[in-house]
Amino acid sequence: MNISGNTIFIPGATSGIGLALAVRLHDRGNTVIVGGRREDRLRAIAAEHPGIRTVRIDTADASSIDVASRTVLAEHPELNVLVTMAGVMRAEDWTTRSGFLPSAEETVTTNVLGPIRLIAAFIEHLRAQPDATIMTVSSGLAFAPLRVTPSYNASKAAIHMLSESLRLQLAETRVSVLELEPPAVRTALMPGHESNEAAMPLDDFVDEVMALVESQPDAMEIQVERVKFLRYGEARGDYDQVVATLNRTDPH
Fold first, then answer.
1. How far is it, in rounded angstroms, from Cα 58 to Cα 66?
2. What is the rounded distance in angstroms from the CA atom of residue 162 to the CA atom of residue 50?
3. 31-36 sheet: strands from edge to edge
4. Could you list the active site residues?
5. What is the pLDDT of residues 203-247, one digit of tens each?
6. DSSP 8-state symbol, 33
7. How does pLDDT run across 76-133, given as a tens digit for each residue?
8. What string of H, E and C letters represents the secondary structure of 200-219?
9. What domains are defined for the chain?
10. Are 34 and 43 in contact (CB under 8 A)?
């Protein structure tokens, strides 16, 4: 993926990593469209960051994705990058039905069905572009589990394998698949996460991501240094230690 000159749609980007990435990409000469559920947040983003476009979308709602995708493509027919950023992370207790089932269903709908539906809405358009990218967003927890978030871990593992599989299917097309694999980052993804000293500062994370995208335009995975501890535990042969350390310190 080239660092500039793109038209990029980032649903689920009204806060956290998504918004920070949207701002940096806009600053680097890309046309950026931010999607989100809350109209007040979208208005605030448009006011605070002139030039960033916004569209309302609920990535857990198939009809909302359909409407938003048609709006985006009508207004930005040159769109060539889709970032499937939206996601939820919930603590769960799998010892009782009520402790996990509603959360698990919400997590799978948002974190797995959401990206699938987004890709379905844009794939034919992206295939018609001279050069296009689908950026998926998994997690270090796709490769080592945090005890308190089983559904989130599983959903991100699914996104990793979806990315791998999609890359194979699109190998003979002009669409590349780029998987972003964040470690724990100081965002509001879970309560208390923004102030977690063990998590990576948001600005540092996005700085490193932008540098990696620029220096590795043909990369298949974007891995900041801090996520490699989780990503390569099995390959190094210290997976059990990785899991123990992760669940002792809690952040991923």
1. 10
2. 35
3. 53-56, 31-36, 7-11, 81-84, 132-137, 175-180, 221-222
4. 152
5. 999 999 999 999 999 999 999 999 999 999 999 999 999 999 999
6. E
7. 999 999 999 989 999 999 999 999 999 999 999 999 999 999 999 999 999 999 999 9
8. ECHHHHHHHHHHHHHHCCCC
9. 7-249 (3.40.50.720)
10. no
